[in-house]
Amino acid sequence: MTTPDPSSLPDLSGRVVVVTGASRGIGAAVALEAARLGGRVVLVGRTRGALEELDDEIRALGREPAVLAPVDLTRREHVDALGGMLFERFGRIDLLVHAAGEPGTLTPVSHIDPTELQKVLAVEVIAAQHLIRSFETLLRVSETGRAIFLTCDIAASAPAYFGMAAAAKAGLEALVRSWAAELRQSRVEVVLVDPGRVAGTRTETRRYPGGSREKLPGSAEVAALILATLAQPAGGNDVVRLQSSPRL
Fold it and tell me: Which of 26, 96, 130, 150 is the S-S candidate for 79 at Cβ 3.0 to 4.6 Å?
């Protein structure tokens, strides 16, 4: 898949769009843009208050109120319950955007706190498997089922002090690529998207404290690029890198 054209945004009217990490940052921006494009948006995040504020913004656009799902994605029973609720309410999922993530602390590998590592892996890898397990059938029912998972180029480059985050993203990519291969004969398309560095996000401030952000795109710009990937066929195991922002 080539770099998406931000002018080729899809019409999501009537499509069920589930966005994780919708409490803030890229996830919130994707959910708001999906609603603007007509999607029936399901907001997944840990903080109900933040989801309610985003729902207010969606309603202010004159769009259908969002479904609020304050869920801990690292707990399988929570995700299974969410899948059951979505089946009863909609019978399908047309688009899943998994934007939830945990950047972790920059530290030498020998200094990594095992408890923090477990937390990062739970959010980045275990949560993704929980979503796949609970949502695959719902995506298969859709005529346009697509799942988008956000990744980062550190999964391959593994720069110094990024070992915790790099290991988590590499695990996520391996899991998603394997799932994509398993779905090759189905209608479901699976895409890994690297949004690059994005101004104002928690990941950006944690990973690059004090760094210049003058030329970085904001969450709204990146959200449009992410949804523009829907206008193109999935690219197999390739990672779609949004070239609007500088790399490491």
Answer: 130
